[in-house]
Structure formats: C-alpha cells, structure tokens
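Supplementary material to the annual report.
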Amino acid sequence: MLSKISRTAIAGAAAVFSGALFSLGAHAQSTIKIAYLEGLSGPFANVGEVGLRHLQYAADRVNAKGGVLGQKIEVIPFDTKTSPQEAQLVFKQLVDQGIRYMMQGNGSAVAIALTEALAKHNSREPEKTVLYMNYGAVDPSLTNEKCNFYHFRFDADVDMKMQALTTYMVQQKDIKKVYLINQDYAFGQSVAKAARAMLTKKRADIEIVGDDLHPLGKVKDFAPYIAKIKASGANAVVSGNWGNDIALLIKAAKEAGLTAEFFTYYAGGLGTPPVIGEAGVGHLKQVTVFHSNIGGSRTADEVNGYRKRFPDSKDDFYWTSIMAAVDMLARSMEQTKSTDPTKVALALENMKVDQVTGEAYMRADNHQLVQPIFVSTFSKSNGKDVKFDVERTGFGFRTDARIEAKDTVLPTTCNFKRPKG
Amino acid sequence: MLNSLSYGLLLFMLSSGLTLIFSMMGVLNFAHASFYMLGAYFAYQTSTYLGFWPALIVAPAAVAFLGALTERYGLRTVHKFGHVAELLFTFGLAYIIEEFVHLLWGRAPVEYRIPPILDFSAFSIYTTQYPAYRVFMMLVSVAMLAALYLALTRTRIGLIIQASLTHPDMVEALGHNVPRVFMTVFAGGAALAGLAGVIGGNAFVTEPGMAASVGTIVFVVVVFGGMGSLAGAFVASLIIGAVQTFSVAFDYSLASILTGMGVQLDPESAWYELWKVTIAQAAPVLPYVLMVLMLIVRPKGLMGTREG
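Predicted assembly:
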C-alpha cells in the first residue's frame, strides 16, 4: 500500500519534473522499461542493490549514446524479497504496468518460478509477451529441461563452470584426493553431482574422498568439517558455498592449518572477500566469467568507470553479464527496429557480443550465452598481475587459466517452440 | 574434541546471560541474541579506533548500558501487563536492533578481525593445528563462569540479588532498591551477551544475520539445561557443542545401518530419501531433537528446579 502510494508520488513528481524540463512535450517521452526483480529488502538486499547499480550503470551508458531507437532505457526496480511466491506476484504487477523486459539473477528457485509464470503469460497473451534476461541464476535446468524461448541467460551455468574448473583441475598433476563440501539445497547438490561426475570421468586416478552437504547458512563453526577434510587426506576441496558459508569455511581451514586448495564458485562474491582476508591468500580459487584482473585496458576502464560512478568501497564491478545483457538487448532492438520482445528474442539468437573478457555468443538452441570462463586465485594485490583489489581490501584475484568459450559448450536437452517472427 | 569444547563454551557465554535474566526476573529475553550482535558490532567499531583489548571492556560496557536502559524504560513499564507483554516487547526489540544495525553498519559483513597477537596456532594435535584465539575464547569463558558463580554465591551483591528474587518485599523493607537490583541483573545479562559478541564476532562473521543464527540455539541450551540454572546451562552448552561437532564426523545413515543388518535398500524402496540422510547431514537438527526429547522426558530440564 505504502509503496504503491510512494511510487505514484515519485512517478507524479518525476512527471512534473520532466514536464518542466521538456516543456515541448505535453506528456513525458516514452521509454524502454526494464523491470529489475530482486530482493531489495531482507537478508539478501545488499546483493540485490549491487545488481541494480550495475543495471543502472549499463543503462546510463546506452542512454548517454542517445538511447535505443531514440528512446531512453528506464530501469524500474521491484522487490521480490528473494522469494519465489513474491516474485510471481511482482511479475503480475509488471505485466499490468505493460513492462515487456525484465531482469533477475539471484536465486535459481526464484528464476524457476519466474520462467514458469513467464511461459504461462506469454502463451496466453502472445501480443503482450515479456522477455526475461537472467544475469546470474545458474541452475542448469533453466537452459535444459525447464528452458523457455523468452528466457536468456548471460552467466555460465553450474555445469559449464564445473566443466571449466575440472578441465583446469585435471591438469594439476598433484591433485589426487578431492573433497566436496556444499550447501544442502538444489544448487549445492548440483555442484557436488557435477564435480563427482566430471572429475572421475576426466581423470581416473582422482579419488573423491568425501562428499558433505551442510545446511544452508546455519553452520557457525566449520572446524569439525575441516577436521574431517584433514582426516580424509584431501589436497583439493570443491565447494559451491557462497556468502558466510564460504567465508567461515575458509577461515576455519586457515585456523586448522589445512593446506588443501579450495576450488569455489563464489569466493569473490561481493561482501565475501573482506571477511576472508588473509586466510584465503594463495590457495583459494574461484571459477567465474569475470574478475577484475583478467587484463586489458577495457577491463581497467570498466572497473575504474564503475568505481567512479559508485565510489562506495562496499561496491565493485562484478556483473559483466548485466553489461552483456543490456548491450545485446539494445543492439537487437536497433537491428530489428522494434521493441517487440518476440522479434528482439529472435534477433538475440546467435548474436555475437564483444565483451571485456573476449567474444561471446548467444546459443540459439537453449539461449545460453557462451563465453570464456576464468579460474583465478585469491592473492595480495601487487599492482601488476593483481592490479585491482576487490572491494578495496588489498586482495584481488590472479588468473590461473582462461578456458575458451568453445570449450565450455555442453549438450542441452532444451526443446522449446520458436514463435514466428 | 577441543572444537566441541570451544563451541560449547561460546554457547555457554551466550546462554548464561539469558538464563541469568530468566532465573532472576522471569523474563524470557528474545532480544538476547541481538545484544550478542551489538557486542560484536561495538567491538568492531571500538577496535577500529582503539584496538581489540579496549574493545573487550568497552563493548560489553556499552551493551550493559543499553541493557540497563531497556530494563528501566522498557521492561519495567511493560512488566505490569504480565509475561506475554514482556515477551512481545523483547521480541519487537530484537527486530528494532536488527534494523538499527542495518542502518548503521549496512547489510554486508564488516571487517572485524582477530587481533594479530592471537592469530597463531597454539599447538597441534595429530597434525591439526589449534588456533590460539580459540584457547583465548575458552579461557575468557571459563573465567566468566567462575566470576559469575563466585559473585552470585559468595558476595554481598549476590546475596541481595538472590534475596530480592524470593522475597522482594522483605529486601525492600531492609532498605535495598529492588528495581535497581533488577536493572543491574538485566544489564549484567546483556553485558555477558555483549562479551560473547566481542569474542565470537571475529572468530566467526560479524553481520546483521548473526543474531538470528544463534538466537534459536541459545534457547535450546537454556531449555535443555533447565530454565534459570547456570550450571545446567553450562553442562547443556558442552553437550550440545559436542553433539553438533561430533555428529559431523559420522557419515552413517539409517540406510547404511540397515544394509549392515542385511536389509536390501535401493532408490526404489519406500522412504529411500529418509533412509539415506546421514548423521552428518542431520547434525544441525540434533540439538532441537535433544530439546524436544528433554521436554518430554524431563520438562524442567537437566538441572532445572521448577519454582512456584
């Protein structure tokens, strides 16, 4: 209720303001609206806010060049409280407001709920289709059995990252015994499953000496888990943990003097490096589609540009997937001279994009962006190969390996119906 | 073993304040874990200016001050409306403190680190190093238990406190300010939580969710040990610490036991998902199972004495 009132009030104020600015037009110029659906209150609000700033940053850049088809991109945030039920309600709201583009990326459960709502809506109202840009929900099912023509993913999924990570791991001859420790929910389980399958297939002499699932966000003290890892004799640990679950795990490992290497997904996630600090240096690795020290002047420009725009130390450039999404969206609109999601979606297929990390393209058969993936190590920043630290902590990531886009492509079971353009 | 001890002792530090307040005042303080969180944040703030050691004194003192204010201006007023009102009051307070922390320190974890002087490994057992900071945690906790016990049973203040619980009118007639005694007790309980925050905040993570993550387990300790029993809380903390720590090490599941007994199980069997849950996976649930069992078998808790 309150938020509705305040939104109307803000919209009213904005209308008055823009009316004053452009006294020529009686009503405000029409914009291309992108709804941003994320938890903007509650425990994951900080994550949601960071994504929103990235989207704003990307939209500003397009707008500064004159926008798309003469229209500006407008970002409209919606609070999903990171809950699937709430997200479906919010989806109805944005449909009611006539918004045709939406973006979401935190939480695969939310993403799955959204694609289901989206599929229903788009089949019922083909005149009012909505296009979904997913910048970070990495459950493989979203581009496999649960895929949808109007869903596009710009981050690499769990299996693709595991493919990249295991390719790197099997080249490290000293890795013999691997321990898997993950959060006990859909994502953690899929990490464990993928790691086990791919590692044992790629190198027969690698032994999985442990496979633990612990409750999500409930463990305060990882010391007993570390003792167990130590007892198993593992010299490598694979973990999909994020947030405090990874920070506490690494801290406990340092305390117990565990020297195994940690292969993780989200060690560099915003808010995590300050907690890990010194404890992770040298033996903590992550697999990502981007980190600040992949090199190149464009990367530096991107990181510096973002830091200039959002100088808060708790904020840093992270989501290249959001940049790619907005960039590709703008180009496919220009190409088709249309803002109709169906036409735009067809134009997105097979589209190439020149990212800071290298060339990437959108797969037509499951709408997954294929891009290079990096394995990197948490290190002290030194001004050379670790030029940028993360969140001004003095620690950053150093690239160990770059896995080329073509080597991350996996078969898909996706089989969606393509509408006629 | 030592892991379980250190975790248990931290739990004790947390729950002692709660059980103290409960036994003294009959108030179940839902905001107790929030005081723990405040302790950690205050310590973080102090340590950025003054270092860790002053924080060890300043932060609990600040939390005690807040505790005193809460009792004086909040609980005392609410008290006359009975226990439900008190419960709701502390419940609301917990939310207010959490939002306050959000506003002041943000939603992301803060960089509260172990002081470098304690950041080394004290000794190693079977190649596993044991960090000095954990030893320090245990020492503080044990010292606190001793101090608390002595203060309550061997000093004049302790005597007055105990007396004002059972015979408030008489103590008042003897010229003591009973409401102030209550205020002191509440502040003391809060200070204990604050101290736990100072110690636990850097060993684990200082973030706005930390209150919620220990809140429930602290209640389990208090209920399990017996409402209001300090010794009970101590024993219960150690038991629960041990249960949680050791169960992680066991990869046995019902399935593996049944298979051992010659029962054939495969993914097709009924309730297969249930059978294959390992003890390690169920570790975090075990304390709650213990609590429920305890309530069934011995409702007053391990060492609780039910007062009229």
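Residues 30-156+319-370 of chain A form a domain with the Rossmann fold fold (CATH 3.40.50.2300).
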